[in-house]
Amino acid sequence: MSIINEGAVSCTKCGNRNTIQVYRSINVAENPELKQKVMDGSLFLWECPHCGQVNLARYETLYHDPLKKLMVWLMPEGEISETQMQAITMHTRAMGGYTLRKVSDMGSLMEKVLIHEAGLDDVVIEMCKYVTKMEMIAKITGKEQQEKLLATPFHFYKCQGEDEGRYLTLMYPSDGTMSGVNIGWNVYQDCLGILSRNPHIRPEDGFASVDSEFLEHFLK
Ligand SMILES: [Zn+2]
Question: Residues with Cβ within 5 Å of ion ligand 1?
Answer without folding.
Answer: 11, 13-14, 48, 50-51, 53
